[in-house]
Known about the structure:
This protein is of the alpha/beta class. The protein is built from 15 helices and six strands. The protein has helices spanning about 5-35, 40-65, 135-140, 145-155, 165-175, 180-190, 200-215, 225-230, 240-250, 280-290, 305-320, 330-335, 345-360, 365-385, 385-400, and strands at about 75-85, 95-105, 110-115, 160-165, 235, 260-265.
Amino acid sequence: MSFYHTWKREKLRIIFLAFALSCTVIGTTYFWFRSVPQSVSAVTFRVNSAVDTVLAARKVAVNSSQDAVAFGDDETVNILILGLDSRKEGREQHCDAIHMVSINTQDWTVLMTSVPRGTYAYIPPGTYAKNEYYLANACAFAGLDYGVEQIEHVVGVKADYVVTAGFSQVLGILRTLSLPTTESLQWLRNRQSYKLGDPQRSQNQAVFLKDVALRLLDGDGIPDVVFHLLYSFVDTEMSEETAKALYDGLLLHSIHSRPSDIALTMKPHYAVKDIHFDPEHSSEQIATLLAKLRGRLSSSDFSSRTLEDVQKDFIVYLENVLAGKEGSVEAVIDQQLWLQVEDDGVRESLHYRFVEVYATEINDADHAAAVQLIADYILEKQTLGILVWETKGRELLEEVLRF
């Protein structure tokens, strides 16, 4: 080997070691500061600063908006949470779960206004039937922005932020919170077991969200790395700093000890009930719901395909994307489709392979994005305690940084 090549190799090695050392120092400093308890006054200052920024931006929007729908009072931050029915590279995204969460930043109370997905909404003429004029389809047929506007008219306030999560992302959130994936989704999507159908389903979703929020806001709350992971599963224009400030505000003001201050309402009004999901006995709870449907629905409403059949086909699809036979790797990365795979080993293997392929694809054109993609992957596996795949991620990052 020539002196030049030896020198070049050693230079790259030194650069990589320097980078690794700097990352270690930065990371150690970061986690040391995170481990030191912050004073109440420091947290309060950070929360108030973030809230002030949100409200200042709102005033600018109000002054420039000609829309008849108001934002609401100056002390409240309105966050529209939408669950989108998008699975395998779906282009039409139905708003299947619709909940406006309004956080009062003075007394730190919460009002969650739920809107059933079947609520009437005008949709500009298109290739669909007149009986399809409802909010879920407004998002799908006329676009998400149009759907959001229709939801705002129903609720009566404009959203400061919109937070969306697709089918895959919800599965990621459920796994992170150690909730049963299949049963939780069955619970959140079921409507045919109730007389009120769609409105009761919407209320069940709201109760579920409240129960999860109270769990996350109990005691000292959740670690920052877990918060970051949960934030990474949703799409929103709200910064992570703002989201964390609102979370810290609710935690600081002990909302967990005031569950009645997270109020649930619905527009239009329906006489719904508060029914709680029971994660400890989820299989029995779902079986009871489904038993009510036997003999009441057409046989065509029950698919003869098992969950195992569906999973096999889905894995074949993902393998075909990796092989370049259909779909696109970028779309899978964007929608985090591997999260739909139930088998832990297969899911983790596919996740790594998609990160590896996509990082390699974009490395020449956007090296920083490739590094960020792998770094986020490592952080996720580190947070979840999956050492084998964290190590694989570190090896991949080392390879990308070397070249």
